[in-house]
Amino acid sequence: MQQDILINWSPQETRVAVVETGAVQELHVERTLERGLVGNVYLGKVARVLPGMQSAFIDIGLERAAFLHVADLMSSVAARHADTEKGEPAPVVPIEKQVFEGQALLVQVIKDPIGTKGARLSSQISIAGRLLVFLPQDQHIGVSQKIPFEQREALRNRLQALAEAAAKDGKTGSQTGGFILRTNGEDASDAELGEDIAYLRKTWARIKDAATRLPPKSLLHQDLSLLQRVLRDLVSETTQTIRLDSAEQFQQLKAFGQEFTPSAVDKLQLYKGERPIFDLFNIDDEVGKALGRRVELKSGGYLIVDQTEALTTVDVNTGGFVGARNFDETIFKTNLEAAGAIARQLRLRNLGGIVIADFIDMTREDHREAVLVEFRKQLARDRVKTMVSGYSALGLVEMTRKRTRESLAHMLCEPCPVCDGKGSVKTARTVTYDILREILREARQFNPREFRVIASPDVIDILLDEESQHLAGLSDFIGKPISLQSEGAMTQEQYDIVLL
User: Fold this and answer.
1) Cβ-based neighbours of 245, under 8 Å, separated by 6 or more
2) In percent, how much of the chain has pLDDT > 70?
3) Up-side HSE of residue 188: CA atoms within 13 Å toward CB?
4) How confident is the model at residue 81, as a pLDDT?
5) Residue 174 binned pLDDT confidence (cut-offs 50, 70, 90)
6) Which residues, in sequence order, are bridge partners of residue 49?
7) What is the DSSP string of 249-308?
8) In this structure, how many other beta carbons lie within 10 angstroms of the beta carbon of residue 6?
9) Mean pLDDT of all residues in 270-275
10) DSSP conformational letter for 117
């Protein structure tokens, strides 16, 4: 499918929308003050080693210490590579024998901090270029798994020869380093690959130099901005245009593209329209819908999307859709449409981890299989790795989608200060009864002159009206007066009982 990329830039925020056939498929947001850390290289300092968890906490200068597991240590990675070639199990060297507290360690962020979890690190450094990924501490030459199997061996040999030639040119030294050919490098010329190799090795040289000059907890290398990653990662053969609404950023992106992604430069366009660029495809409306629970389907059915800490559930409903033939056909058509809609919502909302899709129950096995095939087909368009395990014993479709960054909801929203993220609050009557019980509890422990209840207007209204008789009875029972004070700034669940 042909796609267009729209970029809305402001000094505070960059927003990128990938549009196919008039519908938003992906939305990427990067805020200047909240820029992601994945790809950044730090000179970290080991703060604590945890032998029981076979991990260590590394101080890289952030608010929370980052997490390094033994499997992500370079020595463990190298051992796994060696064992793969030998076909023997790898001996696991305990982390406490590899790192120690206070040690300076070169590390790279492989997962951003999410919620209360710190960033995840690896000591195997990888630097992404336009066509290649450079592994400076490794000698491995690889090819993207997305490239057809029959082409990989020839491409691997060609890349090996180019890497060795670069190492013998007298400028880069004898250490060749490892390279992985990215999917978009499949048809690249030797000259283009050579330029990428030179760029990546220069970047690594700068990192090594900075590591010798800067103190621990220093940032040595920062990954490209979202604006630059558009050209490196999002542009494909199906991309028709890349429209950007900032003249200054357009010139900078054009210069970057001419140096690193010349094939994408011709697709760049400066948007000069009077309407905001995101209004062209009602993208802000789509964002608003992507933050809600309910997603309408064209057929009249709808999805209910619920995101929790552990997993995301998607429930499919027929709604007002009535099939032309029979009920089975109605369900089948709704589920087919839902398969594409769920895949799109996962991309648009950037939902990761475990996903449970509850399609409407189908009696026919061929319908069940057709829906699963369509679901896998739609997920195949995702840039992020997904895996579908099929129907469970309960008829649910279980799948996983790799977590790469915060979901759209976590990035743009925060828990409601009234309900604290629960999605509901106690009724005013429930809070009223809580207050009455609390007064009785306090009266048994203390002997004040008077109890004063400070609560929201709705709660005070109930105490003055419907529950006034019970309030008076409680006052007589404890032998103390109870006064009421309405506080409009309080939420419905909030109250104070002041002992006077």
Assistant:
1) 7, 8, 9, 270, 271, 276, 277
2) 94
3) 26
4) 58
5) very low
6) 56
7) HHHHHHHHHHHH-HHHHTTEEE---SS-GGGGGTHHHHHHHHTSSEEE-TTS-EEEEEE-
8) 21
9) 91
10) B
The 8-class DSSP code of residue 361 comes to: P
Sort 320 into a burial class: Cβ within 10 Å, 0-12 / 13-18 / 19+: exposed
pLDDT tens digits, 305-329:
998 878 899 999 987 655 556 778 8
Contact status, residue 118 vs residue 64, Cβ threshold 8 Å: yes
Q: What is the pLDDT, as a whole number, of residue 411?
A: 81
Helix axes 468-478, 457-464, angle to 10 degrees: 80
Q: What three-state secondary structure class fits 160? A: helix
CATH 3.30.420.60 range(s) for the chain read 3-35+225-283
Query: By the 8 A CB rule, do 20 and 2 touch?
Result: yes
Type of residue at 286 = E
Per-residue model confidence (pLDDT) at position 35: 79
Residue 485 one-letter amino acid: Q
Class of domain 3-35+225-283: alpha beta
Q: Give 247-265 pLDDT, tens digit per residue.
A: 999 999 999 888 777 878 9
DSSP code, position 114: B
pLDDT of residue 321: 55
pLDDT tens readout for residues 87-97: 566 677 899 99
The answer to whether the Cα torsion of 240, 246, 251, 257 is positive or negative is negative
Q: What pTM was estimated for this model as a whole?
A: 0.68
Instruction: Please state, in angstroms and rounded to a whole number, the distance separating the CA atoms of residues 116 and 67.
Output: 12
Distance between CA atoms of residues 43 and 103, nearest Å: 10
Given a cut of 50, is residue 471 above it in pLDDT?
Answer: yes
**Strand-by-strand arrangement of the 23-31 sheet:** 23-31, 13-20, 3-9, 239-244, 268-270
Torsion of CA 436, 442, 446, 452, to 10 degrees: -50
Q: What is the pLDDT of residue 129?
A: 85
Work out the number of other CB atoms within 10 angstroms of the CB of residue 459.
29
Q: Would you call 408 exposed, middle or buried from its count of C-beta atoms within 10 A (0-12, 13-18, 19+)?
A: buried
* pLDDT > 90: percent of the chain: 51
CATH 3.40.1260.20 domain extents, the chain: 428-499
Neighbours of 467 (CB within 10 A): 19
- Strands 132-135, 127-128: pairing kind: antiparallel
The string of pLDDT tens digits covering residues 402-427 is: 876 778 888 888 888 888 777 788 99
State the burial class of residue 397 (Cβ atoms within 10 Å of its Cβ: 0-12, 13-18, 19+): buried
* CATH topology for the 428-499 domain: Hypothetical Protein Ychn; Chain: A, (3.40.1260)
